[in-house]
What we know:
Layout lengths: L10 E3 L1 H11 L4 E4 L6 H12 L6 E4 L3 H14 L3 E5 L1 H16 L5 E6 L13 H5 L6 E4 L3 H16 L7 E6 L8 E3 L4 H8 L22 H34 L6 E4 L6 E4 L4 H14 L4 E6 L1 E3 L3 H7 L5 E6 L9 H12 L5 E6 L9 H17 L7 E3 L8 E2 L1
Parallel strand pairs: 2-3, 2-4, 4-5, 5-7, 6-7, 10-11, 10-13, 13-14, 14-15
Antiparallel strand pairs: 1-8, 6-12, 9-11, 15-16
Amino acid sequence: MAAKYELKNKEVWDGNLAAAHALRQAEVDVVAAYPITPSTPIVQNYAQFLADGYVDGEFVKVESEHSAMSACVGAAAAGGRVATATSSQGYALMVEVLYQASGMRLPIVMTVVNRALASPLNIHGDHGDLYLGRDAGWIHLIANNPQEVYDLTLCAFKIAEDKRVRLPVTTNQDGFLVSHTAQVVEPLQDEEAREFIGSYKSLNPMLDTKNPVTYGAQTEEEWHFEHKATQHKALMDSVAVIEEVFNEFEKVSGRKYNLVETYKLEDAEIALVLMGSAYETAMVAVDKAREEGIKVGLIMPRVFRPFPYNEIAEKLKNVKAIAALDRSAPMGAMGALYNEVAGALAANGKSAIMTNYIYGLGGRDTTANHILEVIKETKQNADANKRVTPLQGFINLRGPKLSFN
């Protein structure tokens, strides 16, 4: 029996500590992890909880992130509640096993502290690792501050383990900007959190020797297509479960989460689309622009996978121009968020003048004034009723202004 951890109604936590407490409250059976900046404090704090008697589960120290996810796959297939954490190159090393975890329908929860990918080496936050794993069959939830990290990590367990889903889930937070920024967090008490998540119910556990099962079977062309189509359908259909869990969490916490979050979008003529900590910075820019008479709003997919196409299109149906801001180097294309939003509009018969902005790579600062410049450029497109600014631009880039038409 784990010792009781005394929590105040208000705690001062950074994003890493918030994630660690969520893992503690979830009563995870196995955490397997390898440290990497800036996510190391998540598993370090969890290991301390274990050493202090606040955790009953197992902490498995491994020799790499590939091994960490492999151990998570084994533990989840055996029938346990499993979690881990990583960032950047560690995430990249896991990629092979990410596909194994989702293909085997294992409800692993991973808290990812988003960080730039090498080369050159960089320890600060952008969305390179998030975008790298977007098609690996995992559900991706986006947190903008420590409170959201805590809340969404609790929700992740309930979503992943629902028998209508049974897929792995990541919660994403910006490296250092969220992971190492201390803010007031209002946690649930342990009993409340555990009642919300519920006890773990294994499905086809390998340790049930009376009912032997096989994981990771070879299928080839006869059945591989059907398996992947079924997996894809489960991921797309998980939207209903995600909404159910968000609604249930609101009842126990008073905090409301949506598939798509918006700010002052109701009467907006132009819109910005972005994810992560910059969303809160953009709120300040929107307020400044509104004072200047510019009708601008914000929209953010809280759930990046499965991407909420219909919801995004519906919320953007009346805007004239859109700026999609990607915190990742697209390398030869438009940014992933730009492409997703453009596809959502096209699929629903909507249209708007769209531009793409790349920002914040390697932790480069993006201020409200930088975003205000984007707002004014987007308004130029709306006023002209055509794109008069570059198709793709870079925010706060040193040297000559770089853009592509």
